[in-house]
Amino acid sequence: MTTGTDPLAPLAQLAGVPEAVAEVRKNVDRLYGHRVMRRRAGEVTSESALRGARASAALDGADWPLEEVRRRTDFGADAEARTVGAALRLSAEAGQLLSVWRTSPLQVLARLHLLAVGDGDPAAGRPRHDGEPAAPLFPRELAATEGPASDGPASGGPVGELPPPPPPAEVAARLDQLAGLLAARAERPTGGAPALVVAAVVHGELLALRPFGSANGLVARAAQRIVLIAEGLDPKAICPAEVGLAELGTAAYRRALLGYLEGTPEGLSRWLAHCAAALGLGVRESTAVCEAMQRGMV
């Protein structure tokens, strides 16, 4: 990589991406300027973490009502409860891993996987080995002709099948490359790709590689949240993109990911637009929370 350049920067110039980035930035700034944020920012952060965790768990097949997630204390009884508990642990600890993320993102990914599956799992935190299958990213197989759950930017056309992840050796090499790219960004004071693009690439790459034997979706979405905090777009973690991903629907999520896996300009634009739309819906969710707090409803 040439000194002073960011290999992700060209992605920010793909069709529709500059407009999506600008729109998200405007909406995030408006949310941060809400009068509730002056007095109750910590409460908004906590509510965002809860709602983001609920949505991330829903994308992994544990679609619980928000109030059920809020009131429950036992998250170890069955598979769905464990998924919700894992999402809550990841959401709660994401902001505490920033300093390590900036110097060793691979260490953070291992920590996130450990949080997701629990330290009683002997495979917790370690990458997949040769011959070990990656867990499915979605709670069920979608038929190739299933339509999207919304009319979002990734809707329309057949869903298609996800290809298998690369072999472990390639996964390790690509993770090292991603870590190097992130470390280089940490040393570059200004310039380069915007935070939304970086977060979307980290998210997409982890879904593509599926480095762990389980919980890859939960880990990828938690990593995206960390990037949005670390890159300064959402430093207080009040914009739950996971909520938007769930609202746009699993089929649209899968279709957008296929665009990332294609690696074409059109496919990458589709993925970046989907991530931008999801973050925008997360901003809308927290804006509604702020409005409710202002009216004394929360």
Automatic annotation (TrEMBL):
Residues covered by the Fido domain: 104-274
Domain of life: Bacteria
Region named Disordered: 144-169
Segments forming a coiled coil: none
PROSITE patterns: FIDO
SUPFAM superfamilies xref list: Fic-like
Annotated protein name in UniProt: Fido domain-containing protein
Organism, scientific name: Kitasatospora setae (strain ATCC 33774 / DSM 43861 / JCM 3304 / KCC A-0304 / NBRC 14216 / KM-6054) (Streptomyces setae)
UniProt lineage: Bacteria, Bacillati, Actinomycetota, Actinomycetes, Kitasatosporales
